[in-house]
Amino acid sequence: MSKKGILFVVSGPSGCGKGTILSEILKDDRFYYSVSATTRAPRPGEQDGVNYRFITRESFEMAIKEGRMLEYTEYCGNYYGTPLDVIDQKLAEGKNVILEIEVEGAGNVKRIRPDSVLIFILPPSVKELRHRLEKRGTETADVIDRRIKKASEEIRCAAGYDYIMVNGPLDEAVADMKTIISAAEMSSAANKYKIDEVLENA
Ligand code: 5GP
User: Fold this and answer.
1) Domain 7-188, what fold?
2) Which of 75, 87, 122, 146 is the 20 to 30 Å CA partner of 15?
């Protein structure tokens, strides 16, 4: 058996800075970012097929019915889901696959794929989170209020994750995430194949 990739699941409240950290991690081509499908409208600057696959409710519901989603959820009135198609192919190629999904989806992935590694990114505080969302300026005040309320519920779920990190200064946060990735890559679960290799070469 050869080295398979690891399935990483990254969660954190909207606006906590997940995207910025992940864009640094994804500069390394050992990683593959799973592009989710959503029924939410694109934000300015978001591209179809890059940030999300933006699809209609009808297409989404058809994909669920046909078993083409690893997991999905309804979040603040829109569907979000992980299309199954490329994930297993990338893991078999030895790439680490990153899913950036919310807490309910993360729990579902852990149940379906117990060898996945769950990482939660905490904002420094809820006050700071509100400040970041307001600064981003892509949501109305009403949506921001809903997302802040949701954030407090999500943060309570962080205790069920394998790893928790705080998003403070970017370079420190990126270093923290790399440390978590290295730990997962050295875990016994990810290295069973090495034991066989060593024994075969006795
Ligand atoms: P946003 O609208 O801010 O892009 O995303 C809202 C929330 O949906 C975020 O917490 C994001 O991580 C989550 N999300 C994005 N894609 C998926 C997905 O495929 N499945 C699930 N369960 N959540 C997702």
Assistant:
1) Rossmann fold (3.40.50)
2) 87
